[in-house]
Amino acid sequence: MKLSVQVRSSPFYVVGETIKLLEELNAFYEYDIILFDVLGDVVCGGFATPLNYAHYCIIITDNGFDSLFAANRISASVREKSNTHPLRLAGLVGNRTSERDLIDKYVESCPMPVLEVLPLVEDIRISRVKGKTLFEMAEYQENLNYVFIPREIPDRELFSLPSDFYLNVNLENPEKVMLEEQNVPSLGFTAI
């Protein structure tokens, strides 16, 4: 079961109150995954508090100096907290960027896995300006043909996916075998 919490306000008070609410709801024990989205530019340590409850941290950044500065602060917090908590840095995701030169320089100086670099998609910015989702825009704009609602997999086919996987396991790289059999390109994520 997953729970997603987004904290989009800078004051530490809001982060602290959110942590209290999650504790009251027993969320840290009821859910396997909690996504806690905190702005990295919180200078009062608001991003550090959720790390007390985390096992892994994924840093989302763009190719700009300010984002990488915040990523460096978060990385330092993870390093410090890992001394007393079961916390590890899973890696970095480059978000909405057409270039990655500064990201590459940063991970060269501060080694960490780059899990993925997501491209800058102008259609997303336009959809925000129009106040519509990409799905709504795709209904009347032919150039958004890459936006689609996934098909439903019939039950028999769904159940054959795991059985085919387990019957044809390659112990060296089972994910690769499964993706090759389905002709699915790997997204570049590393299993943790």
TrEMBL record:
The keyword DNA repair belongs to this UniProt entry's keyword annotation: no
Keywords: ATP-binding, Chlorophyll biosynthesis, Chloroplast, Iron, Iron-sulfur, Metal-binding, Nucleotide-binding, Plastid
GO molecular function, one term: ATP binding
Cofactors demanded by this protein: [4Fe-4S] cluster
GO biological process, one term: chlorophyll biosynthetic process
Pfam families listed in its UniProt record: Fer4_NifH (PF00142)
InterPro entries in alphabetical order: NifH/chlL_CS (IPR030655), NifH/frxC (IPR000392), P-loop_NTPase (IPR027417)
Similarity-based family: Belongs to the NifH/BchL/ChlL family.
PANTHER family reported in the protein's UniProt record: LIGHT-INDEPENDENT PROTOCHLOROPHYLLIDE REDUCTASE IRON-SULFUR ATP-BINDING PROTEIN
Listed name of the protein: Uncharacterized protein
Organism: Ceratopteris richardii (Triangle waterfern)
